[in-house]
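Known limitations

Files may contain more than one protein. Parsers should not assume a single record per file. Below, a two-record file is shown to illustrate correct handling: read the sequence, read the token line, then continue until end of file.
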Amino acid sequence: MGKDVIIALDFDSKEKTMAFLDQFREEKPFVKIGMELYYAEGPSIVEEIKARGHKIFLDLKLHDIPNTVKKAMAVLAGLEVDMTNVHASGTRAMMEAALQGAGNTGTKIIAVTQLTSTSQERMEKDLLIEKPLDQVVIHYAKTAAASGLAGVVCSPLEAGKVHTACGESFLTVTPGVRFADGDVGDQVRVTTPARAKELGSDYIVVGRPITQAAGPVAAYRRCMAEFVG
């Protein structure tokens, strides 16, 4: 399994996004389009970035009744993105419906286990889930694998355990990555690119440490050097 760095394009407009991507003249980074940018610009932003030659992870975290998710996924998969996602907590029926909606488009569907902003305390207090957090993540990952999905979104801290439970080919896409000398922001379960590599992450998702860096291209190259080598 090849490793790669996915840049989170956490911008609120096409203008800001393209100005950021224009700085990359030698590379075509794998990028993530999340709710903020997609809701601001719609499907056209996906098409324009794809036309530039970037791989795209469309991060919209679908979570609804199975039939609604199936229909929505058919639309999203029609954009021919490389990867998109649902919430594993939507149950196996919903994940299977998402897979049906995507059909044979080639879009990989992965499932969000627990957000990297979630702590054990928050999970117990707010969600009434009292099992250990890593045990919950592994359970969700196993359910996603049984549903036929390609992988999960999890913390780098759980990536190795997910591979042990679900196999090496089951993808681990891991946000919550910061440079050792950087700010963790609103993330709780975090680590560095080098440590994420050691722990078994297949893809790391990096936003502010790159997008808000004084030199984004240099920050991206540093991240690639630490994670990919």
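...continuing to the second record:
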Amino acid sequence: MSPILTRLQGDGLLARVMRSSAWTALGYGASQALRLASNLILTRLLFPEAFGLMALVSVFIVGLTMFSDVGTHPAILQHRRGDDPAFLDTAYTIQMARGGLLWLASALIAWPAALFYGQPELAWLLPVAGFSLLLHGMEPTRVDTAARHLRLGRLTALDLIAQAVGVLSMVVLAWATQSVWALVAGWIVSSGTRLALIVLALPGPRSRPRWEGAAARDLLHFGVWLFLSTAFGFMVAQGDKAILGKYLTLEQLGLYNIGFFLASFPMLLGQTIGGRILIPLYRERPPGASAENFAKLRRMRFVLTGAVFVLLGVMAFAGEWIVDLLYDPRYSMAGAILVVIAVVQIPSVIGMTYDQSALAAGDSRSYFVLTALRAVFLVTGLILGAEAYGLVGALIGQALAGLAVYPFLIWLARRHRAWDGLHDLTFALAGAALAAAALSLDSGAIAALQTVFGGQP
């Protein structure tokens, strides 16, 4: 342990990367444990339809967030003025204005959304849930400063406290009301608690409204491509639920959401760690600057991808057992969904460490091109697959979309001298073996899944 502890100490880049990775992994693991615990309790207090309805609420709230992202967070991470108070306050002003507009937008789309999905409750749920967007917009930029300098310990702890408070309120209200409103209320409580904790307990400069023309131009120039990227990124992150909401019943969508929640843990863990450490790491150690930088990034990439693959293997081979252990028989079909989603994510995991190299270099335009292509391939695969073979077809379409976008991912990585062919070949072979073994082992459950969820819409 002594060499490991030595490397974790100090203020050098390696020490900060290792500490930030450890804190992020610990925080994400604890966060998912809280979500799982609340999920297990709530599935016994509420019906699957409540989770299906909340999945639709989540689609719209996340959609509003992503369709309006102007990239202030990555801009602060990579910009040379990322520690300048005038630059930070201008970013804070943009962020606050955006939060207020998003809350208004959530009220405006509520009634059309309720009509489209035939769910009247959405007309009231969406404006209330949208208040969390206003709270998020009021968070000071000290959050971004902590991420820029890879000092994430206290921020991780505050996030977990806020989540725990939200979960507790959600469970208490679900027990008292047995209503989907308990889920929305917990969401608001968590957002409000996080804002209060960041203001009161996170070190950093005080944010205040200010507008500097030069800072605004830099932020908006960088952000215009991020805005377009996240608009398409919505379909990458939420396209499955948005599209499957028209093909599945609320009960089926609730089952899918539970399977997705469990299966996505490895991928989201990898993306969370990568999203927090890769932009600062690429900024300070560009892979094209030296062979030493490239070798260090290769080691980091092998460790991160390998860890995610191990977790994906657990989900793929033990998915049905995990669901049967944790949930009552009403949710048993989520086990087969979990297995298939774990396999579907393999192509995306292989390339998950490349796209941040573009943002670190300020190349938000190339990042947009890649995200747009991802969205087009994913939506096409989802719709064609769902039309032909129901849920199983939609999941197959997702896997094919991940393969189709890979050549463009290589293009972006090579553009910033970050592509590692040895890494990709190694995990492509490992992924093919993992997928074949998992699907063969669970072929009966997948056939049953096709029987229940297949067919024409």
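Parsers that stop after the first record will miss the second one. For reference, the second record is described as follows. Residues 247-457 form one domain.
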